[in-house]
Amino acid sequence: MISILIPTYNFNCRPLVEELRRQATAGKYPFEIIVADDGSTLPYRKINAGIGEIDHCRYVQLQENIGPARIRNLLVSLARYRFCLLMDADTFPAGDSFIEKYAKSAQAGSVVCGGFIYKRGINTGVCPLRLKYGIEVEEKDFNARNNDPYGRFISMCFLADKEIFQKVSFNEKMHFGYEDACFGMELKEKHVPIIHIDN
Fold first, then answer.
1. Rounded distance, CA 135 to CA 128, Å?
2. CA 61 to mean position of chain CA atoms
3. Is the pLDDT of residue 100 over 60?
4. Strands 111-114 and 157-161
5. What angle do CA 35, 40, 41 make, to 5 degrees?
6. Please, what are the domains in the chain?
């Protein structure tokens, strides 16, 4: 039912994979997890390579960095199931019902977007100015996001019917910046509904 697709670059995403696998297994949904490493340095390749040995998981190692748009399109092309849940490697579910909420919200021909919250505290690993911006501008509840569903689309965590990617794909000419905004605008132009949920 769900292909969980995670592009990664120089990040240890094993904890994320293990948590998503735990939740998907508990929910008894047919699933797969595919992690595509976008040309990371050797230490991260070694950390993440073991993901391919975990049940229901596949690990794809690219020798050179192809960028966020191309790697997302590649992951979708590798997916076996109808619904694709794309997640950035540096995200993490805020609760135990994360996968369940996406699975219950999946609809033919639609996109389901979740929100996100930033870690608070001294050692967040995020620049203070970036953290302030993220909390004030990007952290929005699902009601606020549903008021502007296309404008609030962010590619860090969304589920889409795989058929949508035949109409809309990530613009591979873009490198690090605005590819998700363009994807959201294309969804609007093609009249693909976006539903924002409280994930």
1. 11
2. 18
3. yes
4. antiparallel
5. 140
6. 2-197 (3.90.550.10)
